[in-house]
Amino acid sequence: MLHIYCPHCAEYREEEEFRPKGEAHIARPVAPEAASDEEWGTYLFFRKNPRGLHHELWYHAAGCRKFFNATRDTVSYQILETYKVGQKPSVVAGQSSNKGAAK
Amino acid sequence: MSQQNRLGTGGRIDRSRPLRFTFNGVDYQGFAGDTLASALLANGVDVVNRSFKYSRPRGIVAAGAEEPNAIVQLGASEAAQVPNVRATQQALYGGLVAASTNGWPNVDRDLMGVIGSVGGKFMPPGFYYKTFMAPASLWPKYEKYIRKAAGLGRVPKEADPDIYDHINRHCDVLVIGAGPAGLAAALAAARSGARVILCDEQEEMGGSLLDSRELVDGRPASAWAAAVLAELATLPEVLVLPRTTANGYHDHNFVTLHERRTEHLADLAPSLNGRRQVRARMHRVRAGEVILATGTHERPLVFSNNDVPGNLVAGAVSTYIRRYAVVPGRRLVLSTANDHAYRAALDWHDAGREVVAIVDAREHPEGDLVNEARARNIRIIPGSAVIEAQGKKRVSAVQVARIDIGGFKVAGRVETLACDTIATSGGYSPVVHLAAHTGARPEWRDDILGFVPGKVPGMTPVGGVHGKGALIEALADGAAAGTAAAQRTGFTAPAVELPKVAKVREGKAAALYQVPHVKPAMRAPKQFVDPQNDVTAAGIELATREGFESIEHVKRYTGMGFGTDQGKLGNINGMAIAARCLKQTIPQTGTTVFRPNYTPVTFGAIAGRNCREFFDPRRFTALHAWHVEHGAKFEEVGQWMRPWYFPRGNESMHEAVQRECRAVRESVGILDASTLGKIEIQGKDAREFLNRLYTNAWTKLDVGKCRYGLMCKDDGMVMDDGVTACIAENHFHMTTTTGGAAAVLDWMELWHQTEWPELEVYFNSVTDHWAAMAINGPNARKLLAELTDDIDLSGENFKFMDWRAGTVAGVPARVYRISFTGELSFEINVQANHALHVWQALFDKGEKYGLTPYGTETMHVLRAEKGFIIVGQETDGSMTPEDLGMQWCVGYKKPFSWIGRRALTRPDTKREDRKQLVGLKPLDPQLVLDEGAQIVLEKEIRIPMPMVGHVTSSYFSPTLGHAFALAVVKGGSQRMGQTVYLPMADGRVHAAEVVSPVFYDAEGARQHV
Ligand SMILES: [Zn+2]
C-alpha cells in the first residue's frame, strides 16, 4: 500500500485515502472545435504506459478533495515527488532521479 | 501412551503439565511447550501424511514454517475446522484434535497408495496438462476425484464463531524475527527511545538462541534472549508480538503482521471475563525502517528416497533434541556439506543415542565442530554422501558412496549402513520471501551459497538472512543495524555493548544440492525436491529436456513451489538442478517470485471485523424506520437501502407494483427520493460552470426555475443526469443519480481544479442533509395544499419545472415541481431530521386520497412508460445523447465547447447505425421480455447471426394493459413498426414491434396541469 505525500495537506497519508486518475498533464485542446478528429482522438484515448517514471494525477478523495500530480516509478513503485496541479515535475525520465526525496 | 522418544531431562517443555491430544483418531500425550510436531515425534509417530501425487508415506522433516509434510486439519468440532496447519507451528494444548490432510481413507492404509505406486509411472511432470486437459469437458470430473484423493484440507461447513481484529499501527523501527540478530537490533533501536515493534512467528521468542550449543556471556544463549526480552518489556515505546507472522511486505514499508492470540490455547477462542477473546489480529504496520531478521531455512540434500519418514533437516534434529527434549530416532546418519550441521550429530550423541556416521561431502572437513565429533570418536566418512535411503514407513538403512560433485557422479563403492534417522544439510537459504514480496529480486552470493534479499528502500537485512548466520556475527550485525535504523528515524541510539561469544571456527561449505546416484536420475529411485508437491529431480530434468528453460516455466510445468509451503524447503535445490541440466549457474537460472502470504492466513484474520453488516456500509434514508414498519421490501442501490415495493397482506411483488402504479396514475402516490445525489454549487461562475458541464444551456435559467440536465464525458457518452435548480443568481442545487453522486462531485472537482481553476465556483455534497419526498398523481396538488399556506400551488403561479421555498407541515421546505412519472408531481425537500414529521403529516391528510407509498420498482415502471431513461440501465458508457433520442437536451450553439461537445462530431459518434433507444411492444401482450435479452432481425435463428441490440428495461404496465420494454437497437430510430426477434436460451424466439420509447401521454399533458 502506497504512502503518499499530499502537497495540499502537507502530510503523508495512506493510499486508501486517494484515488489514481491516470496520466497527468493531459491538456484539453483550447479550441476543441478547431481540433482535427485525429487530434481529438489522441487527446481522448491515447495514454502513455511507461516502464519507469510516470507522471500521474491523483485525487485526495477521502481527505482534502484536491487533485495533485505524482512522479512514480512504475517498476519500483517509489514516488519520487508529488506536486500541485499547474506545476511542472522536477524529476523527469531520462534525467538522474537521485533528487528523489519522496516529497 | 508412552512418549518413547522423550528425554528425561532438558528442553524447554514443562513436564509438570502433561497435555492429551488426538491425531488421526489416536490419543497421545505431550507436554506444555510442545508443538504438535514435537509431541508426535515424542510419541514415535512416523507417518503424518500421504504425498500429493504418489501417495507415499511422509514424516516430519523440519521444525518451523518450512515444513512441507506435516500439514494437518485442525479442530475438534465442525465450526473449528482449520485446514493446512503446519504441525511444526501449532502449539500443543489440552484436547487438541488434528488429522492428516492427505491420505484417503487413511495415512497408514491408503487407497491412493495402490494407484500411486502404479499411477506414479503414468504421472510424469506435465501429467495434469497432458492427461486431464483434453477433453476439457471432463476436467470437472477428474478434478473432483483428484482433489478428494489429494485432500488439500477442507473449510468448515459451519460458521466461524470467532472474532478477529485489524489494528493500524505506526512505528519507527519494525524488527521481523526475534533470533539473535533481531533481538540485538530491537534492543539497540529501543534504547534510543524509538517506537519499536518486534514480532516473531514462534511460540517463544529467541530463534536459534533457544537451541544453541553456544554460550553467551558464559551462560546458555537462551538466558541472554530472556534478559533482552525482559528489558524490552520495560520500555514504553516497544511492542513485542510473539506468535506473530509478518505475512506480507508491501510498498513503502507497509507490513501486515498476523498475530495468533488464542490458537495456542484452544481451537476456538476461549472466553476471558465472560467475553470471547479475539482469536487473531492483523496489525497493519507502516514502519519508518524495517529490519529483516528472518534467518535461514536449511536445505535438505536431494537423494533417492529422501522422503521416507525418518529423513529430517539437520537443524530440526538439533531443535527437537535441545528445545523439546525429543530424539526422533535411535541411530542417526548425518549427511552434510558444511560444518554447522555437525551440531545435529553432537546433540544426538549428547542425548545418549548412536551416531552411526557423519557423511561429509568434503574431502577434508576441518573446524571446531568437526574436531569435537572426532574427539568423541564419531565415524566421519569424507568426500561422500548418502545416495539412497531404504525403508517404507521408516528409514531402515542408507547407502553411502564416495561422490564426485564436479563430475556429478558416484566415484567409489557403495556402503550400506543400518540406521533409522537421516539428518541432512545442503546449506542455509536466507529467508528472502518477505523482501521478495516488494518486487526486489533476490541476489545470489557464492560465498554463502544462497540468495540474499534485493535492495528495498528503508529495509535492512541482518543475521542469517544477510549471510551472517554465525551467532557472533549475527549479534553484531543486528545491533549495528538497530542503531543505524533508529538514527535514520531521528533518534540518538547509544551503542549496544555486545555480549561475549566465542568465535566458532568453521570450514568452507561445499555446494551440494542433488546427490548423484549410481543410476541416472531418471532411473534411480525418486529423489524428491519439493515433497509437498511430489516434484522430483527427474521431473525437473525432464522439464529442461522438454525445452523449459525459464525457472518460472519449470515451476509451472512441474508444480514446484506451488504447495501451501511455497517450496520453502525445495526451491533452491530445484533451481540448482535446473541450472545443472541447462549447464549454467544458479543466478543465471534465476530465482522465483514469492508472494504474500508467507504462511497461510485464515480468512477470518484477513476479514477482521469487515464481515456481515460491516462488510460494506449501508446507507439509510431518514424515513427508513417508517418503511420497515410498513412492510417495505428493500432493494440495495449502491450502498443505499431503498424501498423496492410495499406489499399489502399476501400480495406478490407483481400485484403490489400494479396496485402502486394505478394509485399514482389515478390518485396520488409517494416516493422516498432522498437517495438522489445533491450537490450545492455556489460562486460567481457557477452558471458558467454548469454551461460547460451539462450538454444543455443554463444561461437563461431564472431564480425559481429548474432544468433537467444531461452530463457527458468528453468522449460524448452520457455519464449522469438530473434536475438542477437555480436558488439564487450565484447558487444552484444539483441532483444526480443515486449511484452517481460521488462520481459526479469528483468529476466537477476534476474539471474545476485541473482545467478551469480560474472559475470561481465551489461544490459541496448535501445528499444526506435534505430528505426528498415526491408526491405524484392527479391529487398531488390537493394533498399538498392541505399542508402549506405560504406557497401558491396554482398551475399559473407554480408551473412545471418551477421550485418554491416555503413551509410544509410547519417546517421550512423547498418544493420542486418536477416529475419522473409524467404525472402532476411535487418533490418536497426538507431538512432530513424533519422528514418523518412531514411524511407522517402527508399520510394524515392523504388518507382520503388513498395516498400510496411506492418503491423503486413502481418508479421504474412509471418512468419507463414515459420513456425516461435511467443512466446505467438504458446507458452503458457507449450511448450519446442522440443515441437516446435526447437531441432536445443538447446545446450545439452554446459558445463554450462543453464537455462532450467535440466528440459528438467524430465519425464514430455520427454513425447512423449506432444503437439507439427504442420502445418494444411484445407481440404477445402478456409477455414481459427478459432484461438483457439479445435482439436479432431474423426469425430463423442460425448461429452465428448478427446481434443488433438488447432489452434495457422491461415491465408489465397496468395502465397500458400490456407488457412493454425499452431497448437499444442498431439504427433503431429508422426501424419504427418493424418486428425484431429475441432468441431465448431455451429455444423459444420472442417477437416484438419496434415503437417509440414514449408509451404514455406522449404530449406531456398530465404533468402540466
Ligand atoms: Zn490532501
TrEMBL record, chain A:
GO molecular function list: sarcosine oxidase activity
InterPro entries per the record? SoxD (IPR006279), SoxD_sf (IPR038561)
Tell me a GO biological process for this protein: tetrahydrofolate metabolic process
- What's the name of the protein? Sarcosine oxidase subunit delta
Organism equals Aromatoleum tolulyticum
The organism's taxonomic lineage, starting at the top:
Bacteria, Pseudomonadati, Pseudomonadota, Betaproteobacteria, Rhodocyclales
UniProtKB/TrEMBL annotation, chain B:
Mind telling me which Pfam families this protein's record contains?
Answer: Fer2_4, GCV_T, GCV_T_C, Pyr_redox_2, SO_alpha_A3
Output one GO MF annotation.
sarcosine oxidase activity
Superkingdom of the source?
Answer: Bacteria
Alphabetized Gene3D superfamilies for the sequence: 2Fe-2S iron-sulphur cluster binding domain, sarcosine oxidase, alpha subunit, N-terminal domain, FAD/NAD(P)-binding domain, Probable tRNA modification gtpase trme, domain 1
In this chain the Aminomethyltransferase C-terminal domain maps to 915-1001
- Where in the numbering of this chain does the GCVT N-terminal domain appear? 623-894
Name its species.
Answer: Aromatoleum tolulyticum
Q: Which family does it belong to?
A: Belongs to the GcvT family.
The protein's name is Sarcosine oxidase subunit alpha
Q: One biological process GO term for this chain?
A: tetrahydrofolate metabolic process
